[in-house]
């Protein structure tokens, strides 16, 4: 295998699909993906807050080395999400204030790093979306090897170049290219249902009878005579 490969991205989620996903909670999208897809709990937001949404521009690099990340910053298009698989190692930072500032200046939507960042105070004060596995002051090497626009995997979640990346305070999720349109509609419906449920809670009219029905079907035994699930009107 060639130690350094720079490939072209062959496809990416259309801009209109990205816009339809924008603003949807990651938790709603995850629920519609059977709750079996995740980038791992270590990938946490390192920025001041705000959601992430855009097509993946992937980098696979040796742990602690960011040579190919620098190249990817020059190749990625505005709106892209730079996804860096650095093996999850936290010994050396892959990015810091300078590189994220450059990424923002080029219109990149955000970065996801399966590795460490530095300049944490600056990144936390910035709205530019950065997700990473940890923080260290140690700087990176710039020797390679690495690959651009290949499939990467982060804690079992496979990300191919052009897949949709979404992120919020709950974490990061990859929506596969082929599944994006159908999942978008399902997630939007799920989100609309939750808005209705929140309104029912506020009005004191949430029906929780399904809990007792399910427990009865599962053969649960209870010392409580009255079922707990009921519809309560607000006084």
TrEMBL record:
It comes from the Bacteria. Substrate binds at residues 96-99, 118. It holds the Pfam family RraA-like. Keywords: Magnesium, Metal-binding. SUPFAM superfamilies: RraA-like. Coiled coil: none annotated. Its cofactor is Mg(2+); a divalent metal cation. One of its GO terms (molecular function) is metal ion binding. Mg(2+) binds at residue 119. CDD domains: RraA_family (cd16841). PANTHER family: 4-HYDROXY-4-METHYL-2-OXOGLUTARATE ALDOLASE 3-RELATED. This is Putative 4-hydroxy-4-methyl-2-oxoglutarate aldolase. It comes from Xenophilus arseniciresistens.
């Amino acid at each position: 295998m060639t130690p350094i490969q720079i490939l072209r991205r062959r496809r990416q989620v259309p801009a209109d699909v990205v816009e339809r996903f924008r603003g949807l909670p990651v938790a709603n999208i995850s629920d519609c993906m059977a709750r079996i897809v995740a980038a791992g709990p270590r990938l946490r937001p390192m920025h001041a807050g705000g959601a992430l949404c855009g097509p993946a521009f992937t980098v696979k690099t040796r742990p602690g080395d960011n040579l190919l990340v620098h190249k990817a910053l020059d190749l990625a298009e505005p709106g892209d999400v730079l996804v860096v698989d650095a093996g999850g190692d936290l010994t050396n930072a892959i990015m810091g204030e300078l590189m994220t500032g450059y990424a923002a200046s080029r219109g990149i939507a955000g970065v996801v790093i399966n590795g460490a960042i530095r300049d944490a105070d600056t990144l936390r004060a910035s709205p530019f979306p950065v997700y990473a596995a940890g923080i260290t002051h140690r700087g990176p090497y710039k020797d390679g090897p690495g690959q651009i626009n290949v499939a990467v995997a982060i804690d079992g979640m496979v990300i191919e170049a052009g897949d949709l990346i979404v992120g919020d305070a709950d974490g990061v999720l990859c929506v596969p290219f082929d599944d994006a349109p159908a999942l978008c509609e399902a997630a939007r419906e799920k989100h609309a249902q939750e808005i209705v449920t929140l309104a029912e809670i506020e009005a004191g009219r949430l029906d929780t009878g399904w809990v007792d029905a399910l427990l009865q079907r599962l053969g649960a035994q209870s010392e409580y005579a009255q079922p707990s699930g009921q519809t309560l009107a607000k006084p």
